[in-house]
Every structure is written in structure tokens, then in C-alpha cells.
């Protein structure tokens, strides 16, 4: 309780002093001036004049002391509310910092894509300079500090909308079962912090002018018989979303098309 009242008095004094714009350095030149006056008058033997001057200074200080005391009393009533507001602002600031730290530590997925770089831009045979079997991939990365479970990546939207089955899960790189009817694709995966999994998005056999773009869906057993995964050689806008059991989902948009020379192209929208 003593500490509270002490803080109230200190705050009231600080507020009152601020009205006069006082600081510790303010009294140094005043004290030096008064000391010089005292020494000067004493040296000349003008004691009566010195006493009269002291009386005049005292008379001048009485109104100032009265004003200061009145303001101090007023600020004693204001101080509890000022301290309360100050404490509230400090609590809000700390809460914002804590929320920021919590947000940084939340599980987070990120969608990575590097144009023209393996394994995102892959051809068979590798690094082919002519038409080849061309496949584009994205990377799904765990940017948080916790393990993420039951992650999945889905083609959530496509413009123009030719596929009524959306959203559809996209398959993982190298997940190529020989018989999807009996050995379905993996639909989910786990990610440790800073770990990344590559996901196939679309591919095209550029050596066959009659081939179509194939979307790399993860298929499940007999359901795969009714899924159309090929689309004409046109320009599309793909919306891809990554999900996890905890944390926020993330989304990215890509442009997919076949250029005038018959090469499959893939570009991320900024």
C-alpha cells in the first residue's frame, strides 16, 4: 500500500513539475546566480541591502509556492487515473507483443515455386532443350516451429472452370502407384519444421502435338474412373491451397498455358 501512495505522490509531483518545465539542471544556474549575489553583497558590506533583497525574493516566491502547491493538490487527485491509464497502455503493448510472438510461433505452411529450377520445372529427359515430357511442381514448406500433420494440397479453383470435380487433391512427387484402383495415391502427409514436400501440378507430353495438359490429381481407388484429369491446350488460372490439421491454410495463384511453340508454361501470380 505504501508503494502505491508513493507512486501517486511521485506522479503528481512529476505532472506538476512538467507544467513548469522543470528539470534538475534548471536550479543550477539559479543557485549559482543567487550565490554570486550573496558573495557580492557580503564582500561590499551591504548586509542591509542583502536582507532587503532576500525579503523581496521571499515575497516573490510566496505566490509561486502557492500556485505550485495548488497544482500539486490537483495532480494528487489526477495521479491515480493517470497511473491507471499508463498501466493499461503498458498492458496493451505487452499483449500486442505476446500476440505477435504467438503468431510467429503458429504452425504455418508456405507455397514455394522457383521458375526454371529443379525440381519445380522438370523435364524427361532431364534438362531437355527441346520438346519433352514436361512437368511443373510446387513445394509445400513448414515455416513454423511445430510438426504439421495431415497436410494436403488441393487445386481449389480453375479459370475457365472446366472441371466440376474441384477442389481436387494434387499428388506428391514420385507417388506413382502402378494401379491406382488398388494402390491409391497418398492423400495427406506430415511436415516437420523447415521440411518441404514437392507436389506435382500439371504435365504435358510436348513431343505429341495431339496430347493435352494433364492435371496431377491424387486418385483414390474406383473414384478415379470418373475423374477427368486432362484439359485442352489453353490458358488457365489455377488457385492452389495447402491445408494442415492445425494452423492457417495458405493459397497461391498460377498461370498455366502452352505457348505458340508447343511448350508447357507455368507462372506464379504476384
Main sheet overview:
6 strands, antiparallel
Multimeric status of the protein: single chain
Q: Please tell me what the overall shape is.
A: rod-shaped
| Number of distinct beta strands | 12
Number of alpha- plus pi-helical segments: 3
Estimate the strand proportion: 25-35%
- Ranges where pLDDT stays below 50 over 5 or more residues in a row are none
Helix content: 25-40%
Instruction: Give me the strand/helix succession.
Output: HHHEEEEEEEEEEEE
Mean pLDDT across the residues is 80
Structural class: alpha+beta
Give the termini separation: 59 Å
Rg, rounded, reads 39 Å
What's the topology here?
Elements: H1 2-19, H2 27-43, H3 47-105, E1 109-112, E2 121-124, E3 133-142, E4 148-159, E5 168-169, E6 189-191, E7 196-205, E8 213-215, E9 230-231, E10 236-243, E11 250-258, E12 264-268
Antiparallel strand pairs: 1-3, 2-3, 3-7, 4-5, 4-6, 4-10, 7-8, 8-9, 10-11, 11-12
Helix pairs in contact: 1-3
Quick tags:
single chain, 270 residues, alpha+beta, 6-stranded antiparallel β-sheet
Compact summary:
This protein is α+β, with helices and mostly antiparallel strands. It has helices at residues 2-19, 27-43, 47-105; strands at 109-112, 121-124, 133-142, 148-159, 168-169, 189-191, 196-205, 213-215, 230-231, 236-243, 250-258, 264-268.
Description of the structure:
- With 270 residues, this protein is an alpha+beta fold.
- It has three helices and twelve strands; from the N terminus they run αααββββββββββββ.
- The chain has helices spanning 2-19, 27-43, 47-105; strands at residues 109-112, 121-124, 133-142, 148-159, 168-169, 189-191, 196-205, 213-215, 230-231, 236-243, 250-258, 264-268.
- Strands 1, 2, 3, 7, 8 and 9 form a six-stranded antiparallel sheet that branches. Strands 4, 5, 6, 10, 11 and 12 form a six-stranded antiparallel sheet that branches.
- Strand 7 (196-205) and strand 8 (213-215) form a beta hairpin.
- Helix 1 packs across helix 3 (47-105).
- The chain is rod-shaped.
- The model has no long low-confidence stretch (mean pLDDT 80).
Amino acid at each position: 500500500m505504501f508503494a502505491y501512495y508513493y507512486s501517486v505522490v511521485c506522479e503528481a509531483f512529476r505532472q506538476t513539475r512538467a507544467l513548469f518545465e522543470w528539470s534538475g539542471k534548471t536550479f543550477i544556474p539559479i543557485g549559482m546566480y543567487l550565490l554570486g549575489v550573496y558573495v557580492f553583497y557580503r564582500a561590499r558590506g551591504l548586509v542591509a541591502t542583502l536582507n532587503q533583497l532576500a525579503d523581496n525574493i521571499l515575497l516573490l516566491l510566496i505566490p509561486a509556492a502557492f500556485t505550485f502547491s495548488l497544482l500539486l493538490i490537483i495532480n494528487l487527485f489526477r495521479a491515480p487515473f493517470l497511473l491507471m491509464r499508463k498501466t493499461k497502455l503498458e498492458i496493451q503493448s505487452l499483449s500486442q507483443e505476446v500476440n505477435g510472438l504467438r503468431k510467429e510461433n503458429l504452425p504455418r505452411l508456405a507455397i514455394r515455386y522457383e521458375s526454371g529450377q529443379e525440381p519445380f520445372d522438370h523435364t524427361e529427359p532431364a534438362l531437355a532443350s527441346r520438346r519433352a515430357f514436361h512437368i511443373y511442381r510446387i513445394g509445400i514448406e513448414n515455416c513454423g516451429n511445430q510438426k504439421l500433420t495431415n497436410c494436403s494440397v488441393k487445386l481449389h479453383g480453375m479459370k475457365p472452370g472446366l472441371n466440376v470435380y474441384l477442389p481436387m487433391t494434387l499428388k506428391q512427387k514420385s507417388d506413382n502407384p502402378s494401379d491406382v484402383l488398388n494402390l491409391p495415391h497418398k492423400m495427406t502427409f506430415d511436415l516437420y519444421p523447415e521440411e518441404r514436400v514437392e507436389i506435382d501440378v500439371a504435365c504435358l507430353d510436348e513431343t505429341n502435338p495431339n496430347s493435352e495438359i494433364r492435371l496431377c490429381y491424387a486418385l483414390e481407388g474406383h473414384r478415379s474412373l470418373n475423374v477427368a484429369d486432362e484439359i485442352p491446350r489453353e490458358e488457365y488460372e489455377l488457385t492452389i491451397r495447402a491445408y494442415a490439421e492445425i494452423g492457417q491454410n495458405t493459397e497461391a495463384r498460377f498461370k498455366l498455358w502452352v505457348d505458340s511453340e508447343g511448350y508447357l508454361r507455368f507462372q506464379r501470380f504476384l
